[in-house]
Amino acid sequence: MRAFLRHSAVATRVSKPLTTRSFSASWDKPFPSILITKDGITAQGSFAESQAKYLKPDLAAVGELDTLLAKKQLGIVAHFYMDPELQGVLSQLKWPHTLIADSLAMGEAAAVMAKNGAKAIACLGVDFMSESVRANLDSNGYHDVPVYRLSKKKIGCSLAESAEKQAYLAYLTNAAKTPNSLHVVYINTSLKSKAWAHHIIPTITCTSSNVVQTILQAAAQVPDVSIFYGPDTYMGENLEQMFQNIATLPDDQIRKIHPAHTQATIKSLLSRFDYFKEGNCVVHHMFGDKVTKRVRSDYADVYTTAHFEVPGEMFTLAMEAQNDGRGVVGSTSNILNFIKDKTAAALDAGSNERLRFILGTEVCAYSTRRVARFNYRGSCRDMCLGWHDYIDCHERPSRVGKGHVVRDHAPSGNHLPRRGRCDCHRRRQRGPGCPRRRRLFVRRGMRHVSVYEDERPGRTV
């Protein structure tokens, strides 16, 4: 297993002599996309090509891992946002105790795997996901089933860490002074931060899939409850916007969302809803205003999707699309199901329309594979999945210094601070593919070698 993971890591690369290019010079390029038809897959853009490549993984690696997992009786739960080369192999395994899913489903699946004979679980994700897996195993009585992580080092997450800071504890302490207060905390946080929160204020955990229903149910059950959501600022802002949108609907439509609510109750809830203002995921942070304007101007006729964690501009765009029946906002699973439903409708209608989707979330190779498999079985002419978070971002250094070039901008063009840790799901701390990882082009002899700051000798993350 360790050998396979090492094999999938990105090695130091040798590049051609540098030519300075700005981010804006390449901004007009089309978004990277994958065209899926019943006959095959075509990728546009280097990033999309890397995704498509691993939809057909090395069968030798698949067979080797299958044999090893069966021998060790090891179950694997991996997050949607792991790297494509890893997801490509995992999705081809015959070993039954393997799942690629969101953080909640990972924990639940681990307990099922243990029930069905798995002797240990490997969690491919950040630390709070491993904690969730451990907690689910313990709560189901599988205390003797060990959970293995990707590294002995801390595998953090910028969003989860924001819930452990003094600013968040102060926010909760102040919230607890409000009568009938309830803290709704995002599942993407550590068990430690959840425990501290519950010590301060009554706390309930939510996911991106059930957060809306969780808040609406709490408001229906507890009279005059005051909801304090955290730590994801973007999700809190987007929830507020969604409730404002719901408050404009007729009562009969609101009851379809939740039977206990009307315009009056939603408006009342809005007056008692608050969210933390200082936490976000650095990966979703890249969906800024510039990207949103590009989607509006160049991709107005495309189905638009957005995760709850993206900034407000992108969420607003996807919300407008959802209201028109041409988009969706929600979790990764919600986005995947929306794409599958639209594809199924086109297949049932015998349509030759090219279905195009903008994915407003982190890259999910597994979702691409599932949609591709679904489309192969049908007769729809073709469909196109496009990412607006990566536009050949790894090929565009932003400035030249003495002997090296440093790229320190997110693909959206929004500047991100250089201080602090960036621990996105897809790799460990500032690993390959991370938008805040600083790429250096160092001159060695007559050539330029592309390395990353944390890969230089003597440097640790």
Automatic annotation (TrEMBL):
InterPro entries: NadA, NadA_sf. It comes from the Eukaryota. Residues 416-436 have a biased composition (Basic residues). Its cofactor is [4Fe-4S] cluster. Its EC number is 2.5.1.72. One of its GO terms (molecular function) is metal ion binding. Pathway: Cofactor biosynthesis; NAD(+) biosynthesis; quinolinate from iminoaspartate: step 1/1. Keywords: 4Fe-4S, Iron, Iron-sulfur, Metal-binding, Pyridine nucleotide biosynthesis, Transferase. It is an enzyme of class 2 (transferase). It holds the Pfam family NadA. Residues 404-436 are annotated as: Disordered. GO terms for biological process: 'de novo' NAD+ biosynthetic process from L-aspartate. This is quinolinate synthase.
